[in-house]
Design brief:
Elements: E1 10-18, E2 21-30, E3 38-42, H1 53-59, E4 64-68, H2 87-101, E5 106-111, H3 113-122, E6 129-135, E7 140-141, H4 143-150, H5 162-172, H6 181-189, E8 192-194, E9 200-202, H7 209-214, E10 221-222, H8 224-228, E11 234-239, H9 247-255, E12 261-265, H10 277-288
Parallel strand pairs: 3-4, 3-5, 5-6, 6-11, 11-12
Antiparallel strand pairs: 1-2, 2-4, 7-10, 8-9
Length: 293
């Protein structure tokens, strides 16, 4: 039997349930399918699984990696009721994914909302999460950042050219920090697709903005009871100039709950894209070290 190619992903899908019926979640699987050491990587609010390609390719010799498109993003189905675009449904979908992977435990890496999903799952009794990486997200989320993100979620125009789309991505993603021309192109390719009318549109359901704006808090969003229930080794990556995750919050995260290890990424806001060798190395070192927090 031929050995699996660890350098390229395998496209998979599964059916998940919601109160409004079934929907299909697509994920990209990397690494040896026989490997029992599993890493689940989940993207940010309007992004897709392809964002994690470089990280997954780099870690595929160590882990079996699953990178899902959340419902309404990438190649996954859009939900019939936009109210369901919320953490409880995402957690339910990811529990179904973990069952499909046929594993008792997983490492979890989540960017922004992907981290919130990981926190919610890691806080559950009997959680399968054995190590948790939170990429620029924590139990206090600033209203300033929520408003900034809310100003563009669901509002993207249709673009007449890929170059026009790339300029838009660069404008709303300035907090990502400096990237090469090829990296900006990669980030844009993962965010838009060309449709039958020749226009380029975002690869996410604009209706995710409806529950996002409806749930906008009057002040910073606090989730300390969730974080304090986490017991697994936890790493927090913070963009040095992040407007979503404050330095004061990360200091408190190091003191309570799982007593997270903290690493700040210079020259970056919300959120580190995990495309650089340096950022990937931080993730690799944490996942491969011993289980002592």
């Amino acid at each position: 039997m031929a050995e699996p190619d660890l350098s390229e992903p395998r496209r998979r899908s599964l059916q998940c349930a919601s109160p409004r019926g079934l929907h299909r979640i697509v994920y990209r699987e990397w690494g040896d399918p026989r490997n029992r050491d599993v890493l689940v990587c989940v993207h940010g609010l309007t992004r897709s699984a392809r964002d994690l390609d470089e990280l997954a390719r780099s870690l595929a010799s160590h882990f079996r990696i699953a990178c899902p498109d959340l419902a309404g993003r990438g190649d996954s189905d859009r939900l019939s009721d936009p109210v369901l675009y919320a953490v409880p449904q995402y957690v339910a979908d990811m529990v179904t994914l973990i069952a499909r992977l046929d594993t008792e435990s997983v490492n979890w890496l989540g960017t922004s909302v992907g981290g919130l999903i990981g926190m919610a799952l890691a806080a559950q009794a009997g959680t399968p999460v054995k190590k948790l990486i939170l990429n620029d997200v924590g139990p206090v989320i600033s209203r300033v950042a929520l408003e900034r993100i809310g100003s563009y979620v669901g509002n993207a125009p249709a673009f007449g050219s890929f170059e026009e789309a790339e300029q838009y991505v660069r404008s709303i993603s300035k907090p990502f920090g400096a990237h090469s021309e090829s990296q900006w192109r990669f980030l844009t390719e993962n965010w838009v697709k060309q449709e039958a009318d020749g226009r380029w549109r975002p690869r996410y359901d604009p209706r995710i903005a409806e529950p996002y704006r409806a749930a906008m808090p009057e002040k910073d969003l606090e989730l300390w009871p969730v974080y304090d229930a986490i017991r697994c080794p936890t790493l927090v990556l913070r963009g040095e100039s992040s407007d979503l995750l404050s330095r004061a919050t990360t200091a408190e995260m190091a003191r309570r709950g799982p007593k997270a290890k903290l690493i700040e990424i210079p020259g970056v806001g919300h959120a580190p894209t995990l495309l650089s060798a340096e950022q990937i190395g931080i993730v690799r070192d944490f996942l491969l070290q011993g289980d002592t927090p």
